[in-house]
Amino acid sequence: MDAATVEATRRPRCSQRDTRKQAGRSKRFALSGTSKWDKKHFTGLHELSLKWFVSEYTNDIPKAIIRSTIQKAFQLWAKQANERNLPKVTFHFEEAASKEEADINILWAEGAHGDQYEFDGASAKKNILAHTFFPGHSEPLNGDIHFDDAETWETDLTAATNYDRRFFPYVLAHEIGHALGLQHAKKQEAIMYPYYKNTPLDEIKLDLDDKCAINWNYVGTSKFCLFVWLMSEIVPIHNNSDQMASSNHLNNSPKQRIKAAKRILKQTRIPRCTASNDVQLLIEARLQKFLHFPAPESKTYSEVLCNFLLGLHAYRGSPEYVASDSLEKEFNGVIKEVSEFGPVSSASVRRMARRAWRRLEHGKPSVLGECTNAYKFIAEHP
């Protein structure tokens, strides 16, 4: 292991993999209906309203500061969850008057505390600081957030740099993501990455991975998030893993990070789907394994993603491309470049979406499941 990997293993992490309702395969984005709040919490299309309450406080932080920090962390998700390439998701969060009125109960406890996931104590080997129950967990624990009170909690960043102090704001923001139904991300830049950081709430920027997870969970599949997934899951497989991993451990100046990112991006080899390789089969298999796509849909979307790769080749070879392009700009460039995507793959995907949508409207089994209009956006937009 390199120094960065060793350092990561020493950092406190979230225990969410241990608090799922049942064992299952790890997903790239949270797709399951059990990771989504019940319909009674929705006040409009993709508009979710939740109440929170602190039933047990820690003595480490004044109650007023705890409550204001919680309000700020929820607002972070409410304000940043959306991405301009995706349908809008709206969150409304407010403090409840009592635990009984709350959807999300927040508490501090030590060791065994009434659920089956007891805490491991201060500075323990596993470094477990908190756990959260997904919305689909059985009531009354669903959505609840628990913090280990054996730890020493801080809201002051300077004090939290001490090894035995825990920075409450960042841990809280991460756990709220779980309370909204999101699982862990693989990207270190994402707030849903399982290892906590000492980043103030004012400086946290939700990553595209976080935004796609929210959108995928509450709206449904989208071409843009498939592109994000493609760039995160498929492209790195065909590149030097050590080189790609090193880019995730950059702790130097912003200028150095940008320079390194540009160098890595320029050296990235984009795979192609051809009759002589298994790239499309790999994409199809990973869509089924990690995104839980049914076999017919995974085949259709593998064709779409192969065209994305073709478009990526065309776009990166065009005069418009620069290595510092954002993922959003690259996505738009890919769509513009790939003529095959428009008349063939896009049309077939929209036909599939319309069929699924009609089946759902008539009460028949559909790939949409509990996602209100998971494919409607694709069906209506080229």
TrEMBL record:
The active site is at 175. Ca(2+) 2 binds at residues 103, 144. Ca(2+) 3 binds at residues 120-121, 148, 151. Keywords: Calcium, Hydrolase, Metal-binding, Metalloprotease, Protease, Signal, Zinc. CDD domains: ZnMc_MMP. One of its GO terms (molecular function) is metalloendopeptidase activity. Belongs to the peptidase M10A family. This is Matrixin. It comes from Ancylostoma caninum (Dog hookworm).
